[in-house]
Amino acid sequence: MKTIVITGASRGIGWHTAQQALAQGHHVVAIARQQAGLEQLGAYTRKAPGRLSTLCQDCSEVAPTRNAILEKTDQVDILIHNAAAFLKKEWQALTTEDMEQLYRVNVITPLRLSQALVDHIPKGGHILHIGSVGGVAGSLKFPGLLPYSVSKGALHILSECLAVELADRGITVNALALGSSATEMFKAAFPGQEAGSTPEEMSQYVWQFALNAPSAVNGQVHTVSSQVP
Ligand SMILES: NC(=O)c1ccc[n+]([C@@H]2O[C@H](COP(=O)([O-])OP(=O)(O)OC[C@H]3O[C@@H](n4cnc5c(N)ncnc54)[C@H](OP(=O)(O)O)[C@@H]3O)[C@@H](O)[C@H]2O)c1
């Protein structure tokens, strides 16, 4: 049984990733701000062989998040930074506060939470950043998604840098640059459009990668996309 910490597990891809880990008998620490989605996860996985610990917590409040995680477990085998802030806004209207908020949740929080937990991640552990094709250099870009895409680009480079920093500890760090999946975030980004995957389908890939990548993949930004957007 591994212990998996997943931020942003009250809905969407994070919720389904947590569900899959629980179905395979792991201990999941599921974090989100809204209790309702975490309770639904508990109800849905009541008979699953895994163990669920829920934390109703804004993960960008790093110190309380770290302390709450360590009340549930003293070892984190897989840390999945999945929670993200999203903003769709005309670029000339963007403010410093907009950019700081996106960076705080999408870039700074993954870094600070990894720093705060690294001494509890064993050799062979995995830090996985959930990125986006929008943050991949050369990918098709869309109006209004500048702050989100820029923050995900930074997250991808954070993964590459952190893989180097943590190599001597035997901790693997990767990013998955996801394509479209039918979640609330996708609906906000591309209203009325059909996504390339369901969150169930996307989370199957995310979970298998989170579990199996450390043996063969490190310091990579791996694109997971079937259509654009
Ligand atoms: N869906 C797509 O097409 C797509 C494409 C590319 C990349 N992605 C990436 O995939 C990941 C999951 O996205 P999704 O589509 O599943 O989005 P979603 O349905 O909007 O879910 C986002 C999750 O993050 C949580 N969250 C947001 N801010 C948080 C905070 N400060 N603290 C704790 N939890 C927080 C939300 O829960 P609460 O509101 O309860 O806190 C929710 O559980 C994100 O990193 C996103 O950028 C998604």
Q: β content, as a range?
A: 15-25%
CATH H-level name... which superfamily?
NAD(P)-binding Rossmann-like Domain
How many domains? The number is: 1
Q: Stretches where pLDDT falls below 50 for ≥5 residues?
A: none
What is the H-and-E element order? EHEHEHEHEHEHHE
By secondary-structure content and strand pairing, the structural class works out as alpha/beta
Tally of helical segments? 7
From the spread of the alpha carbons, the general shape counts as: globular
- Give me the CATH fold name: Rossmann fold
Number of strand elements:
7
Helix content: 40-55%
CATH C-level class: Alpha Beta
Q: Going across the biggest sheet, name each strand in turn.
A: 3-2-1-4-5-6-7
In the CATH classification, which architecture applies? 3-Layer(aba) Sandwich
Structure characterization notes:
The protein has 229 residues and is α/β, with parallel strands linked by helices. The chain has one domain (3-224): NAD(P)-binding Rossmann-like Domain (Rossmann fold), CATH 3.40.50. It is 41% helix and 17% strand. It has a seven-stranded parallel β-sheet, with helices on both faces. Helix 4 links the parallel strand 4 and strand 5 (126-132). The model has no long low-confidence stretch (mean pLDDT 98). NADP nicotinamide-adenine-dinucleotide phosphate (NAP) is lined by residues 7-14, 31-34, 37, 58-60, 82-85, 105, 130, 132, 178, 180-181, 183-186, 195, 199.
